[in-house]
Write a structure and sequence with these properties.
heterodimer; A: 385 residues; mainly alpha; three-stranded antiparallel sheet; two-stranded antiparallel ribbon; B: 188 residues; alpha+beta; Alpha-Beta Plaits; 2 domains; 5 helices; 5 strands; 22% helix; 14% strand
């Protein structure tokens, strides 16, 4: 009992710390990648000076994220004259917390056996015994359903923020955010239903484990090979969920100043920003888990590698756990890089284009994809039976 | 029934999208390949120690595209012992159309050949028009203009845009092969 508490406490602290760090680093990555894509240098001025020396740590401008955070913490918390006190204070948290909470069900590693992992430490193996834990904050069987549920709550944050600040731009932004997020949520749901049909479960750990197999003898059985259309549709819809260019209509700054958080300042506005950047990481983590084989390399399982052709490479438990954690974050960062590439490549949609894109293009495609998947799954299972 | 007239103006360069462009997805992928290609190219340059950007570091880096005959900064030439060659005659300050040069003359009894020297020699770059009259008028070849620009950006606002004697005397004659010091013997 105590052991469960300790392990999950460590997982929670690890997940929160990692998400915060990734969110902070992503602000820098976004600026730097955009700069490099457009032949510029990018953020390179903020530095940490080692006290009592003249040694300045610039590190390619990595500390700009820290400087931004500090600035937002120290700014005046300005409020509009007339606003709904309660909703105004609560809205940023409604935008921030659901996004963070999605990570609870995403597995960032395979099976962890603390008794073996900390075997070098006196007495831990006895204390932990042979208990094993899935590396996941909340090992729920309803994993994917939790993702949908929390995704639905994020709309409330935007609507509350827009409504409570008593500003027409904010309200317009909130209305746009609401209709956009609800439309694209539907597309995300329909694309993922296809995956659920194939894997036969909504438990993310078991989805990842099923992806360590092979197709036709050599292709890794990743979701992106099983459901290529769903992968593309998911990415498009997720970018729209995240309200980033080309879908950043809710905060289109040339039309609505800053959309639903126009009237927010200081760290409250920072929370909205931060939620957006953590959302990038969450989308990347979800995509990794659902379509890119999660924390496993191709042909890799919790026991080691099982290469096509029957070769087996057994790895010690410590190495497997470290490898899985590393692989997971590398995949997540590559996906983040791709999402940022999308954001800095495309122009913004017009609002009517945005909605007709969701309802008249993506939704039919998702439905067709779902129908074909259902028929294929039925046919294959019929052959198997 | 009223006839519907299409009042939209037709332009000679009306964009024509085929079904391929209208489908959007593949054209978007083409766009990603362009931006991603530029990203990878520039990253490769940065990683291999080169520079993957067109912008110059300002003010640390001198722009590469200054013309060879650009004259953006004044220098005071030096005698072999490092003192300024200027004799504080005030001709440059007099001829200067923008009146940016301020000279305070001093007396040096140890050097009977050049008893007058500039104690203070300051140029206000916020008003200088870089006409080069000061260089032209100088009887001692004491002031010249060089290819660089003055390093004016400073982290505080009280500094102004003045260059003093110390900055003007940082010129190294060895770096200026076109006009070495002491001057070469010309044809008499």
């Amino acid at each position: 009992m105590m052991q469960d508490l300790v392990v999950h406490g460590v997982f929670i602290v690890y997940a929160v710390l990692m998400l915060m760090t990734v969110g902070l680093v992503l602000t820098w990555v976004e600026r730097k990648q955009a700069a490099i894509m457009s032949d510029r240098i990018g953020a390179n001025r903020a530095y940490l000076r080692i006290p009592f020396t003249q040694v300045k740590l610039i590190w390619w401008g990595l500390f700009h994220g820290l400087a931004d955070g500090l600035k937002m913490l120290l700014k005046e918390d300005w409020r509009p004259n007339s606003y709904d006190r309660m909703a105004y204070a609560v809205a940023p948290w409604f935008a921030f917390v659901p996004v963070m909470a999605v990570f609870a069900v995403i597995p960032f590693g395979g099976e962890l056996v603390p008794g073996t992992f900390f075997g070098w430490f006196e007495g831990t193996s006895e204390w932990f015994g042979d208990r094993s834990y899935a590396m996941q904050v909340a090992p729920l069987d309803a994993g994917l359903l939790i993702v949908f549920a929390l995704g639905g709550i994020a709309v409330i944050g935007a609507m509350l923020a827009g409504w409570s600040s008593n500003n027409k731009f904010s309200l317009l932004g909130a209305v746009r955010a609401g209709s956009q997020m609800i439309s694209y949520e539907l597309v995300i749901g329909l694309t993922i239903v296809g995956l659920i049909l194939i894997y036969g479960t909504v438990n993310l750990v078991s989805i990842v484990e099923q992806q360590s197999g092979v197709l036709f003898g050599f292709i890794p059985a990743w979701g992106i090979f099983l459901q290529p259309f769903a992968a593309i549709l998911f990415l498009v819809a997720a970018q729209a969920e995240n309200q980033r260019i080309p879908f950043d209509l809710p905060e289109a700054e040339s039309e609505l100043i800053a959309g639903y958080f126009t009237e927010y300042s200081a760290m409250k506005m920072g929370l909205f920003m931060f939620a957006e950047f953590i959302h990038i990481a969450i989308i990347a983590a979800l995509f990794t888990t659902l379509f890119l084989g999660g924390y496993n390399l191709p042909y890799m399982t919790d026991a080691g590698f099982l290469l096509p052709g029957g070769f087996e490479i057994a790895l010690p438990h410590v190495l497997v756990v470290l490898l899985q954690i590393t692989v997971f974050w590398v995949k997540v960062f590559l996906m983040c890089g791709f999402l940022i590439l999308v954001r800095w490549s495309l122009p913004r949609f017009r609002y009517d284009q945005l909605l007709s894109f969701a309802w008249r293009f993506l939704l039919p495609l998702a439905l067709i994809n779902l129908a074909i998947t259902a028929v294929a799954v039925w046919a294959i299972q019929g052959i198997g039976a | 029934m009223k006839k519907v007239i299409d009042r939209r103006r037709k332009y000679w360069n009306e964009p024509t999208l085929g079904w391929w462009e209208r489908f959007y997805l593949f054209e978007v992928l083409r766009g990603f390949s362009i931006t991603g290609g530029v990203f990878l190219r520039n990253m490769k340059r940065w990683i291999t120690g080169g520079k993957g950007a067109l912008t110059a570091y300002y003010p640390e880096e001198i722009r590469a595209d200054y013309a060879a005959h650009n004259r953006g900064k004044h220098v005071l030439t030096q005698r072999p012992d490092g003192r300024p060659q200027c004799i504080a005659c005030n001709l440059c300050a007099t001829v200067c159309p923008a009146r940016v040069i301020e000279i305070e003359a001093g007396f040096d009894p140890d050097d009977p050949a050049h008893p007058k020297y500039p104690k203070r020699f300051e140029i206000d770059y916020s008003r200088c028009i870089f006409c080069g009259f000061c260089v032209e008028v100088c009887p001692e070849d004491a002031i010249r203009m060089v290819r660089q620009v003055p390093g004016l950006p400073v982290p505080d606002r009280d500094h102004g845009m003045w260059l003093g004697r110390e900055e003007l005397l940082t010129w190294q004659p060895a770096r200026d092969p076109a006009k070495p010091y002491p001057p070469k013997e010309g044809p008499k």
